[in-house]
Specification:
Blueprint (H helix, E strand, L loop, with lengths): L6 E9 L3 H12 L4 E5 L5 H6 L1 H16 L18 H25 L2 E5 L1 E6 L2 E5 L4 E11 L3 E3 L12 E3 H4 L8 E5 L3 H12 L3 E6 L10 H13 L3 E4 L2 E8 L2 E8 L2 E7 L1 E4 L3 E3 L6 H4 L22 E3 L10 H15 L13 E3 L4 E6 L2 H6 L4 E7 L4 H5 L6 E7 L5 E8 L2 H4 L1 H9 L3 H5 L10 H10 L9
Parallel strand pairs: 1-2, 1-6, 2-3, 6-17, 8-15, 9-10, 9-15, 10-11
Antiparallel strand pairs: 4-5, 5-6, 7-16, 12-13, 13-14, 18-19, 19-22, 20-21, 21-22
Helix pairs in contact: 1-9, 3-4, 3-6
Length: 471
């Protein structure tokens, strides 16, 4: 303890105000705990302010813009060619973020959570210091939840200047659509941003070191995305490395290497999306003995406890997929454990959603994973081309897939490729959580005409009695 140190005592200190951190703080407030939520920028974290929400706003705008090119087939005549004003879009983005952050602040206030804006550093395993704009505050706590999230991974071949060479954060600050654009990294962030900007008129090239784009996703689920990317005029170069990237004469000059062949190309802008890294440095975690692996991730148990029992870790700084909904679930669990409730992250069913065109979403096992687990599997697919609502709303690309145990028809995995896949996968998540069989979904009446009928058809196909496709 520092002589003369002024400390504020709280039950719980939450470090990081992203989806996991603010959810934990609110739940703790509901449970009657005194809570300080420390966030160095804005509540909502990267997801709300610089990632998930603004990127989906851009994707939505780009999709609407692209749809205008096809409305003549629907009988709509446009008098003039549509144009895009990204500056105006930035205003809309800021309004959305402001509304959501204000809502979070209101909920925190109503639940007795104190929000402190500043940079946090552990002084001991029960004290944390916070550098605010004009002061240094110290909080003594009984428990703490570390929810500091992640940031773009370091780039070995370039300097991110946020003007010509961008990362996923500065890409969402663009006020003009670049004439030509290089996306480095064909994962979900790169493909989401690349497809959106291609729809807005940019000449987009994607380079990926793996043999295909979206390498972490089953190949058969990505085929429709590749087809649409080509229709948008995008160039996709796989098994390709970036050797160097420099800004020359207000252009980005890149040296690309494929095998033994290298070539230089020039682009107006480049966006580097090669992954993210956990924000666990400069928190003082090493000094207080928190265990971390070589990459900076913090091991936790099913209650989100670290090796120090009264310190918890959640979200992107823990192993597993870096997903906001995973962080939220962990944050609530950590809060409830601190509050004395019997809570745990005990479900393996964490869904994923990729907001490409078409979208890809899934939960549970793939065919390969199910076989590795020893299951004898049976699968079925229902194409949206056989769905009336899909055809009526120009959403015919893609399919619904289910994977079941061949003998019992127990649901093992669900995957969707198509428009609104992210909205449709919820039924599959619930089915897996409840341990349903194909018969349970097949016997459930889904409204017509909707895309949800795909669930009926695909599970009926498992049973050999689909109506709208051949069995």
């Amino acid at each position: 303890m520092v002589v003369g140190e002024v400390r504020t005592e709280v039950d719980v200190a939450v470090i990081g105000g992203g989806p996991g951190g603010y959810a934990a703080a609110i739940r703790l407030g509901q449970l009657g705990k005194s809570v300080v939520l420390i966030e160095k920028e804005n509540v909502g974290g990267v997801c709300l302010n610089k990632g998930c929400i603004p990127s989906k706003a851009l994707i939505h705008t780009a999709s609407k813009f692209e749809e205008l090119s096809r409305v003549e087939d629907m009988g709509i005549q446009l008098q003039e060619k549509a144009t895009m004003d990204l500056g105006k879009w930035q205003e809309r983005k800021k309004r959305i973020i402001s509304q959501l952050t204000s809502g979070i602040q209101h909920l925190c206030n109503k639940n007795g959570v104190t929000i402190v804006e500043g940079k946090a550093y552990f002084l001991s395993d029960d004290r944390i210091g916070v550098e605010t704009s004009g002061d240094f505050e110290v909080y003594q706590f009984e428990n703490a939840i570390i929810a500091t999230g992640s940031e773009p991974a370091p780039v070995p071949f370039a300097t991110i200047d946020h003007e010509y060479i961008l990362n996923s954060t500065s890409a969402l600050e663009l006020t003009e659509v670049p004439d030509s654009l290089l996306i480095v990294g064909g994962g979900y962030i790169g493909m989401e941003l690349g497809m959106a900007l291609a729809k807005l008129g940019s000449d987009v090239t994607v380079v990926e070191v793996a043999e295909r784009i979206l390498p972490a996703t089953s190949k058969h689920l990505t085929k429709e995305v590749v087809k649409k990317a080509k229709r948008l005029g995008m160039t996709i170069q796989t098994s390709t490395y970036v050797d160097s990237m420099e800004v020359e004469n207000e252009q980005v000059v890149v040296t690309l290497r494929e095998g033994d062949t290298t070539k230089k190309q020039t682009f107006a802008k480049a966006i580097v999306t090669i992954g993210r890294t956990p924000r666990t440095k400069e928190l003082g975690l090493e000094q207080i003995g928190v265990t971390m692996d070589e990459r900076g991730f913090i091991p936790i148990d099913e209650t989100c406890r670290t090796n120090i029992p009264h310190l918890f870790a959640i979200g992107d700084i823990t192993a597993g997929p870096a997903l906001a909904h995973k962080a939220t679930k962990q944050g609530i669990v950590a809060a409830e454990v601190i509050g004395g409730l019997p809570s745990a992250v005990d479900s393996p069913f964490i869904p994923y959603a990729i907001f490409t065109d078409p979208e890809i979403a899934g939960v549970g096992m793939t065919v390969e994973e199910a076989k590795e687990e020893g299951y004898e599997v049976k699968t079925a697919h229902f194409p949206f081309q056989a769905n009336g609502m899909a055809l009526a709303t120009d959403a015919q690309d893609g399919f619904v897939e289910v994977i079941v145990d061949k003998e019992t028809h127990l649901l093992l995995g669900c995957h969707i490729v198509g428009k609104n896949a992210s909205q449709l996968i919820g039924e599959g998540v619930l089915g897996l959580e409840l341990g349903v069989r194909a018969e349970d979904i097949a016997l459930t009446v889904h409204p017509h005409p909707t895309l949800t009928e795909g669930w009926t058809e695909v599970t009926q196909a498992i049973l050999g009695k689909a109506i709208h496709i051949l069995n």
